Amino acid sequence: MLEERPILQVRGIRKRFGDRHALKGVSLELYPQEVLGIVGGSGSGKTTLLRILHLEEEAEGEYFLNVPGLEGRNLLALDRYQVPEVRRWLAMVYQDPSRGLRMDFASLTSVVEPLILKGERLYEALVAQGLEALELADFPLERAGSPPKELSQGQRQRVQIAKALAKKPLVILLDEPTTGLDLLVQATFLDTLRTLKRRLGLSMILVSHDLSVIRTVADRIVVLYEGEVVEEGLADQVLEDPQHPFTQELVGAKL
Amino acid sequence: MRRRYSYAYLDPVTKREIRRKLLKAVAIPGYQVPFASREMPLARGWGTGALQITLSLIGPEDTLKVIDQGADDSVNAVNIRRFVAQMTGAKTTTDTLEATVIQSRHRIPEERLREGQVLVLQVPIPEPLRYVEPSEARARELHALGDYSLLWVDLFEDHLRRGLSRMGAAYPVLVHGRYVMDPSPIPRWDIPKMHMAPHLTLLGAGREKRLYAVPPYTRVEPLAFADRPFTREPILGRCRRTGANHVFLNAIPQEDGRVEYEISDQGYLEKLIKGVAPGPLYEG
Amino acid sequence: MLEVIHLEKRFWLHRLKREVTAFSGVNLRLEPGEFVLLEGANGAGKSSLLRCLYRTYRPTGGEAWLTTPRGRWDLARLGDREILWVRQNVMGYVSQFLDPRPRTTAVDIVAEPLLWQGLDENQARRKAASLLLDLGLRPEFLNAFPYGFSGGERQKVNLARALIRDYRLLLLDEPTASLDAEARKALRQRLEDLKRAGTAILAVFHHPEDVEGLVDRTYPLEAAEYVDLRSEAGSP
Q1: Exposed/middle/buried for C61, CB within 10 Å: 0-12, 13-18, 19+?
Q2: Which residues of A are less than 8 Å from B160 in CB distance?
Q3: What pLDDT is recorded for position C101?
Q4: N or C: which end of chain C has fewer CB within 10 A?
Q5: DSSP letter string over C17-31?
Q6: Which are the contacts of C93, defined by CB distance < 8 A and separation ≥ 6?
């Protein structure tokens, strides 16, 4: 068999909000240069899972990242002052761009913010790296100085992508990134993601309720239903040979 | 009048508390030390913090100078000077070189201060992160973590939009390589005077109840990108009374729309006019 | 190279509460360089068998041993990551359905398997272009998006993507549907070359005359049930 180590691994993730069990024991793995799609309806816990992966929520269970200095350490057991250190390996693209970007500042400023956090103190270097990231994200450079509040939704999401790329993270997490995008814009956006995946060998976890979004980018798919993983496998497998009744409904509904 | 008040107006307990806090502030350069700011016969926001510092330090052997934006004769400066003199019996002066304690609002004198002199600055808002992090608790965390990235992001945005930092006064500085502090609303012109200075600088915010300090010979470095160095204001005119343009000038708009300029440091201006040799100025 | 033992595929359709058998009891062997043609009526399970071997479908019984450079593995039980590796390096597959990739150019679609192999982008695109042109794709379509193509042109892209690498095992499901005569000839030529190089081929051809002379054996599939699986199982 292949000797491969996942770059990200979670085991037995459990999360409760009061009486409600949002996640009831979720385990999954992400391998290098792979896109994992997490699909589920509302109430499936998929967004909660992503927030936990980004260390925005506490949870029970284990969470490992295969990076130097963090091997074998359960990231869910860290205290809050250690979180920024872990976050530099992760980048999150939010469903709502205003959560990930400074809406009033120049787009370029949001993109370079992670670089500033990392300690870059040369202005020209920041500008150059920021523009490079925006270009990779297929963002029109002449609008780099415009604040996100003046951009279209598709452009805002590209700025988020650029910000994620600038960080050069281990894993990019995307939470319903195509929300609010019309079909054509969505298609070009997903195309950008695919191109980046091909060119840069990115590892990504993409959460969506929309199968057609997931199918264009994901290598493997995990299906969440009411807080549990009910199916997982290769993308074409899950889409064409769904086993679980929920998955079958989901796939059938798409047609 | 002295019989009705303790020496220097403050009771001994207060004086001791403030001195303890000052010692702590000097021990941790740039760190804002909270203190229980007392009621003063001066409205909050008019220098009560600096006044409490001055009153805690000054003795009958001291010589006090008080300036307000460089002027010894503004109402504020005059009142404070008279009050302290009455409460302590200290001598007063307008000569920077003669003073042992200089209380100042928004300016550092042009003549270089020596070892042994104490500069007490009035501070309205001590928290340099105030405008980028409104939460007081979070700001304290950021100071503890040494995380000033919010200021750097702000600075980046300024350079991107305007090609320069828009901050005119109160430019944030990194003290002793550890804490970023607000140097009080002194102009950028005065910032370099703090770096490795022989004198002691104490800063007091009475309304916000914080005091902090820069000990002598301490690094004070304005936050700036390595390739976009900090610059002072350009001097745009000449003093209307001396023709000088090598020190900070006040801009005085005239009724006809013109602007006239005059040296801001009144003590220094007077020396030039009287032909008295001033002390050495700060370099650069 | 490939040894299939009692392979079967059943679907359980929850909504309809039905079980459908696509095929069962399939036993066959394939040696390097052998070309085996699958025969049987429509709905007999030929496509499902190929899909099971490619692991788009999960077999519900039996084994399928594939000899790879890294060992002899049972495709029916192999882990997902290993299957991905096998698909990238050992086993190719062509059907009539284009991968849903709306905005990737024809050349890029075909070049991708070479990129996985480690070729640099320019080289990969050049080889891809050359193969596409061999199959008769018009040059102006090389850098266009296939979703706007006619059926025949799309099929050329599909084919090229599977043929661009020397896979050890090639699975073909009606690859000549909608192809013009010239493209069919080019395909035949290419298959002949691959055979000679040792590739094992398992295929379904609507028009067996397209591969006359290449076929070593045929394998007949009998329908367990005559069902149009596509509409029942809900897949495209």
Answers
A1: middle
A2: 106, 108-109, 127, 145
A3: 63
A4: C
A5: TEEEEEEEEEEEEE-
A6: C50, C54, C87, C162, C170, C171, C172, C173
3-class SS shares of chain C: helix, strand, coil, % to 5: 40, 25, 35
Half-sphere exposure of C152 (CA within 13 A, CB side): 12
DSSP one-letter code for C133: H
Give, in degrees to the nearest 5, the angle at Cα A173 between A169 and A176.
150
User: Which pLDDT band, with edges at 50, 70 and 90, does C234 fall under?
Assistant: very low
**Bigger pLDDT: C228 vs A175:** A175
Q: Which of A155-159, A195-199, B87-91, B206-210 has the lowest mean pLDDT?
A: A195-199
Structure tokens at B189: 């012109």
Give the pLDDT confidence of A154-194 residue by residue, as tens digits.
999 999 999 999 999 999 999 999 998 998 899 889 888 98
CB contact (8 A) between residue B153 and residue A113: yes
Least confident of A132-141, B147-156, C33-42: C33-42
- Give the Å distances, CA to CA, from C49 to C14, C37, C147, C231: 22, 12, 27, 17
Helices A153-167 and A107-118: crossing angle in degrees, nearest 10, is: 20
| pLDDT tens-digit series, residues B235-255 | 999 999 999 999 999 999 999
* CA-based nearest residue in chain C for residue A34: C81
Look at residue B284 in the predicted model and tell me its pLDDT: 56
Instruction: Answer for the pair B96, B113: CB distance below 8 angstroms, yes or no.
Output: yes
Question: Whose structure tokens read 């914080």?
Answer: B210
- Residue B135 tokens, joined: 């939460």
Place C98 in a pLDDT band, splitting at 50, 70 and 90: low
> Does A103 contact B at CB distance below 8 Å?
no
CB B102 within 8 A of CB B132: no
CA distances from A181 to A47, A152, A186, B127, C51 (A): 19, 9, 5, 42, 34
**CA-based nearest distance A207→chain B, Å:** 30
Strand pairing of A220-225 and B210-214? unpaired
Spatial CB neighbours of B86, under 8 Å, sequence gap ≥ 6:
B1, B2
Give CA–CA dist A23/A8, Å, rounded.
18
The DSSP H or E segment spanning A62 is: strand A60-65
Please enumerate residues of C whose Cβ is less than 8 A from a Cβ of A: 11-15, 51, 55-58, 70, 79-85, 100-104, 112, 115, 121, 233-236
Indicate if the pLDDT at residue C222 is higher than 80. no
- Whether B3 has a pLDDT exceeding 80, the answer reads no
